[in-house]
Amino acid sequence: MHAILRALAFGAIALAGTASAATPAFLKAQALRAEAEAAMERGDYGAAETALTAALELRPGHPGITLALAAAEAENGESDAALTHLEQFAGMGLAAVLDTGGTFAALLGEPRFIGVQTTMARNLAPVGSPQIAYQLGNGRALFEGLAIDAASGRVFAGSVTERRIVVVNQGTVSDFVPPSAGLWSVFGLAIDAPRGLLWAASAAVPQTGGVKPDEIGAAGLFAFDLATGELKRKAVLPAAAKAALGDLAIAADGTVYVSDSAGAVIYRLPPGADTLETFSNEERFVSPQGLTLVANDTILVVADYAMGLYTIDVATKKMTALAPLSGTTLLGIDELTGGEGNLLLATQNGVNPQRVLRIAVGEDWSRIRQVAVLAANAPFHREITLGQIVGGDFYYIANSQWDRFGEDGATPDDAPFEETVVAKVPFK
What is the pTM of this model? Predict the structure, then answer.
């Protein structure tokens, strides 16, 4: 799930209903960030620096904290320290608008600061060769989830605002599951080819068209016949659950795993069941998003928007953090899917620039070996969301236009929306 309840990896974190699930260290870091923000507003840069230094010790390599600490240090006249943290931030491949007329004015002309500006400008240059593969229709539908049936070539996409699933068949877009089918907003989609099913993760959120206030928080998994669109199975959580089911993964035996970014839970739906069971509500979760099964379905890899990547042993439920490599960040990942061997493909929309990543993991799935940017800064990128591997290409929704929608679901103006497109980029 993209912008509804996501933890902003780049800036301040705004979560509803997830803080209670976070670790004491995470909560302490958040409190320190709030303390630092208040200190900056009253001009007490020393107190802000102290708080942010402590927060960074709790969240090493966090890009938002690193950038904020650089600002506090610059205001304190600590140029070398500020430049070091700016270099670390830019070295992660990120960019930000720096206040050269105020906070960082004293650094203008410094060779190291010029180097930071040069690196950030380079980070905003196009990377990779993504190409437009499909068109989905008017972006007002707010397409989020994507599933491609490799056998038939049909492409399915879920609408957040219009409560429907469309299908692209030989270039023609039509409703596959109409709004009358009883879905809420449609997020993650996945195909269970052996059983001929299209699974959808759906949730009632403020952006859901026609949603009633007392519906918000309801969510569920829905399975449709892949040929006809007929509803075959469903498992629903009531509004009292305050859930936001966002992405899903399907095991070879038909078991479905789904992430709840609002409740900080991973649910599991066994074959034939109609009730979601809690698979993992580990306290380290803050906002679990994309997830994928690897190693013959023995390991579930989960992207937590605020915390990074975790592996979960399916048999024991033991969870292990996959630490990022130095000079990289794995925060703000939305989509996560497994490729051949020990590869992961990810969309990272919680940082600037938004990117498609290729992540190589060690043979035992205990460490990350390499992180590469496959695509960034394409002219048609505007809030990238979910995707899928087909052959040697990764397909993803390239311009969902989530930024046009407020937290209440309203759009700020009547300006026309762009046509939403699916892009593809080779990853082999």
Answer: 0.94
